[in-house]
Amino acid sequence: MRLLAATLLALSLASAQPPGPTHGQRPQRLIVRNAMIVEGVGTPASGPRDIVIEGNRIVRIVPSRAKSPAEGVEIDAAGKYVLPGLINMHGHVQDERAGRPMDVNYCLKLWLACGITTSRDVGSSFEKSKALRERSAKGEIAAPRLFLYPFFGAANPEAARKRVQEFHAGGADGLKFLGTYRDVIEAAYDEAKKLGLRRAHHVGVEETNAWDDIRLGTTTIEHWYGVPDAALENGVQGFPPSYNYQNELDRFRYAGRLWREANPERLGKVLQAMVDNNVGWDPTLSIYVASRDLQRAQTVPWYKDYLHPSLEAFFQPNLENHGSYFTEWTSTDEAFWKENYRIWMAAVRDFARRGGLVTTGEDAGFIWQVYGFGLLQELELHQEAGFPTLKVIQHATYNGAKALGKETELGRVRAGWTADLIVVNGNPLEDLRVLYPRGILPGRQNGIEWTIKDGIPYHVPVLLEDLRGIVTKARAARPNAK
Q1: Element (H, E) at 47
Q2: Residue 381 lies in a domain
Q3: Domain harbouring 100, CATH code
Q4: Cα separation, 53 vs 469, whole angstroms
Q5: Shared domain check, 193 and 53
Q6: Are 217 and 199 in contact (CB under 8 A)?
Q7: For the segment 208-255, what is each residue's pLDDT rounded down to a tens digit?
Q8: Which of 10, 73, 313, 428 is least surrounded by Cβ atoms within 10 Å, i.e. has the fewest?
């Protein structure tokens, strides 16, 4: 009789428990209970608190002891931290590498699994990405929200204005500029401002530099190109006579020797002018880490289960593949790059100290960097640069939203904001590596448990299982696979 009573009690309690969320389906109401919340604006964690989401919107956040409505599905976040969804400000949506097909879901699901709920696509197939943007917005695919900044190119000012108009009419959210003539970028920026298109600039080794970004009004400078160039004593780097920009071994070898040539006093003036003219900086620190330690970059633990063979093929030394320049890489190159990083990181820190807007981006798909994991490495590198962890998280959330012009919608855990959240097993303020997927780092059972994008909960273990399946299938399909 006692056993029967105990069984009935257990069944009664189980039936009283609110239902959990269904992977990939937006509930009418979702309550994340008992969470320690990091809002995303640099303020300390607070909790335990309950986050009430209706549809795709956070409607209220209350102390856990104050009973919020019980109706709806629930995630128990006791012992967990909740952050805003991460914003990747330098992404590329890719469905092939090295001429080999690659399931686009590999890129998109890796982003979600690593906590990225928004990605700024700064150069992919515009038409393909538009279709993905629409399907993501409708919740039809497991993918971050996409902002499209297509590659811009034009031969003269007249063509530049026409091209800007075409991209605007085609639905671009902004534009990505990559190494162009000064008169062309002047005309393009003038037209883009009229049409309300934001501007990301990857400055090439050409006649423009950060002073042009300051004068014309760039939204974000990508990487660091153009910043030290604007502070050179002689106005040009000390290239050897044999230097060939089109040879990527030359290009990246001597890129690693640029920051040491920047005049510190002039550099300070450049950084202050960037701040004064609201030019943001998306440094993408993670994309160059192979340049300072190639062996480590080639042996990171997530390759075992999550490196797609098409991406692996693209990474092999081959000057025909952008960023695969390690044909004759030396310890001397790595020593210069390590110094490059020290000066570069100090400049990013100085820029932020002066009031500049710093964001996070990964540029994965190149230089031994895998989607999603690249952004998690980016956070660690911002920490290495000297930023407090709360500020690092702000760079990856609120600051990204601000650079996108969406700071009243995205990038914060706050009532009224879009429900983009990550539920983390562990305290990322203590150790950012708890964000890495479970099982990646030896002895750790942390990882992001749920990525909630636009109110849709995605169970990260399910995403990871899907990803392992994609990689396993692709490896089995290789011509030399046994």
Answers
A1: strand 46-54
A2: yes
A3: 3.20.20.140
A4: 32
A5: no
A6: yes
A7: 999 999 999 999 999 999 999 999 999 999 999 999 999 999 999 999
A8: 10
Identify whether residues 131 and 255 lie together within a single domain: yes
Average pLDDT over residues 179-183: 92
Identify the pLDDT of residue 15: 46
Examine the domain organization and report whether 90 and 70 are in the same domain. no
Token digits of residue 9? 């009690």
Q: Which residues contact 5 (CB under 8 A, 6 or more apart)?
A: none
Nearest-angstrom CA–CA distance, 33 and 444: 24
Is residue 61 within 8 A of residue 40, CB to CB? The reply is no
Whether 380 and 419 map to the same domain: the answer is no
How far, in Å, CA of 70 to CA of 72, rounded? Answer: 6
Lowest mean pLDDT among 20-24, 48-52, 350-354: 20-24
Where a domain ends, among 357, 384, 403?
A: 403
The count of residues in the chain is 482
CA-to-CA distance for 476 and 448, rounded, in angstroms?
Answer: 29
In a domain, 110, yes or no: yes
pLDDT tens profile 109-143: 999 999 999 999 999 999 999 999 999 999 999 99
CA 433 – CA 444 distance, rounded (Å): 9
Q: How many other C-beta atoms lie within 10 A of the C-beta of residue 104?
A: 19
Same domain, yes or no, for 198 and 180? yes
**Cβ count within 10 A of residue 5:** 9
d(CA 310, CA 291): 21
Domain-embedded: residue 13: no
Indicate whether 145 and 52 sit together in one domain: no
Could you tell me the two tokens for 314? 């693209």
Q: Which domain holds residue 69?
A: 22-84+414-459
Exposure string for 90-102, b = 16+ CB within 10 A, e = fewer: bbbbbbebbebeb
Q: Is residue 470 part of a domain?
A: no
CATH number for the domain that contains residue 63: 2.30.40.10
SS3 121: strand
Q: Answer yes or no: do 317 and 428 share one domain.
A: no
Q: How far apart are CA 113 and CA 107, in angstroms?
A: 10
Q: 140 and 284, same structural domain?
A: yes
In DSSP terms, 19 is beta-bridged to none
DSSP 261: G
- Cα 61 to chain centroid distance, Å, stands at 27
CA–CA dist 178, 452 (Å, integer): 33
Farthest CA pair distance, the chain? 93
Q: Which of 161, 272, 269, 278 is nearest to 216 (CA)?
A: 278
Which of 74, 65, 69 has its CA nearest to residue 17? 74
Three-class secondary structure of residue 391 per DSSP: helix
Which residues lie closer than 8 Å to 252 by C-beta, 6 or more apart? 291, 325
- Distance, in Å, from the CA atom of 75 to the CA atom of 73, rounded to the nearest integer, reads 7
Q: How far apart are CA 225 and CA 445, in angstroms?
A: 39
